[in-house]
Amino acid sequence: MAPILAELPIFEGLDKRYLELLTGCAANTVFKDGTVIFREGDEAKQFFVVRDGLVALEIRAPGRPPVTIQTVEAGDIVGWSWLFAPHRWHFSGCAIGTTRAIALDGECLRGKCEADHDLGYEFLKRFSLIMIRRLEATRLQLLDVYGK
Questions:
Q1: What is the spatial distance between Cα 28 and Cα 9, in angstroms, rounded to a whole number?
Q2: 147 dihedral zone (left: phi>0; alpha: psi -120 to 50; beta)
């Protein structure tokens, strides 16, 4: 699994010893078209690296249909909520077409990050960039939805 992880953009340049540590937290997953992978507000136990297919990230508002704020594709990360308490999803995610991903167990990773703060700092830097991009996409989508 370490060679597969090494090829993924999120882990690019990550020290080989860290890649080896991550393999114990990783598993291949497949989602059929339309599968809700996670729901906004539910416990975020893991994150996903999309290897093939698409995942629609959605937000919900009372009395309105879900709004897709971003569609992530191969190489992208789905989920950063596993990293920050209270570990709840901020968006919902739905597979578009058959989607293959690597699931990484958040509790496992948090334990490894606590044990090795250098690893934790690497994850924090990498996921901060994902959060910034995701929040920017949300802002742009909301501007479009509300015509501002």
A1: 17
A2: left
Distance CA 11, CA 16 (A): 10
**Domain map (residue ranges) of the chain:** 27-145
Give pLDDT tens digits for 76-132.
999 888 988 999 998 899 999 999 999 999 999 999 999 999 999 998 888 888 888
**Which one is the CATH code of 27-145: 3.40.50.10950, 3.90.1150.10, 2.60.120.10, 3.20.20.80?**
2.60.120.10
**Whether the bond into 66 is cis, omega within 30 of 0:** no
- Structure-token pair, residue 111: 């334990």
62: left (phi > 0), else alpha (psi -120 to 50), else beta?
A: beta
Residue 82 near residue 45 (C-beta atoms within 8 A): yes
Using the Cα atoms of residue 10, residue 21, residue 88 and residue 127 in order, give the sign of their dihedral. negative
- pTM of the complete model: 0.85
∠ CA 131-106-60, nearest 5°, is 50
- Interacting residues of 70 by C-beta distance below 8 A, sequence separation 6+: 56, 57, 134, 137, 138, 141
